[in-house]
């Protein structure tokens, strides 16, 4: 099967903080670390999709705002509820805070099992149990 997304780049404000946050999350969701440095990193999913994280040399010193035009959030998958519970229990220790904790694991609706997280730079991710 052809993958739907080839790759995506995430530009962050503070790579020293963001790289460890994203690295933990991606590895917890089944991605493999390609390389991680203080200022950048790359990870690859078993389906071949990869992502790269860095600070752009042209980036303004403005805080990320997912509510402005652009991508609101990314959604990653985990195989089952046990994996989702593990991500939830470890997230705070890796710089991620839970959104909608009172509605876990169905903040997206009764038929949707997911965890919503936000990191220190206000990037939102959704971690979804594969159907």
Task: Provide structural commentary.
Helices cover 19% and strands 31% of the residues. With 131 residues, it is α/β, with parallel strands linked by helices. The protein has one domain (7-56, 72-129): 2,3-Dihydroxybiphenyl 1,2-Dioxygenase, domain 1, CATH 3.10.180.10. Strand 2 (32-36) and strand 3 form a beta hairpin. The protein is globular, with a radius of gyration of 15 Å. The two termini are 17 Å apart.
Which strand order do you get reading across the main beta sheet? Answer: 1-4-3-2
- State the total count of DSSP E strands: 8
The CATH class designation is: Alpha Beta
Rg, nearest Å: 15 Å
Percentage of residues in helical conformation:
10-25%
Please, what is the CATH homologous superfamily? Answer: 2,3-Dihydroxybiphenyl 1,2-Dioxygenase, domain 1
Global mean pLDDT: 90
Shape summary: globular
**Main structural class:** alpha/beta
CATH topology: 2,3-Dihydroxybiphenyl 1,2-Dioxygenase, domain 1
Give the number of helices.
2
Distance between the termini: 17 Å
Order of helices and strands: EHEEEEHEEE
CATH architecture term: Roll
**Beta-strand level of the residues, as a percent range?**
25-35%
Q: Which segments are poorly predicted (pLDDT under 50) over 5 or more consecutive residues?
A: none
- Number of domain units: 1
The major pleated sheet works out as: 4 strands, mixed
């Amino acid at each position: 099967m052809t993958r739907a997304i080839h790759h995506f780049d995430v530009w962050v404000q503070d790579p020293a903080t963001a790289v460890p946050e994203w690295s933990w999350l991606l590895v917890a969701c089944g991605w493999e670390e390609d390389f991680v440095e203080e200022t950048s990193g790359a990870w690859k999913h078993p389906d071949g999709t990869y992502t790269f994280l860095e600070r752009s040399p042209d980036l303004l010193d403005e805080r990320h705002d997912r509510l402005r035009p652009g991508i609101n959030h990314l959604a990653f998958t985990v195989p089952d509820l046990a994996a989702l519970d593990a991500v939830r229990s470890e997230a705070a220790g890796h710089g991620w805070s839970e959104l909608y904790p009172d509605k876990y694991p169905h903040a997206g609706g009764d038929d949707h099992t997911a965890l919503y997280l936000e990191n220190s730079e206000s990037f939102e991710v959704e971690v979804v149990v594969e159907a």
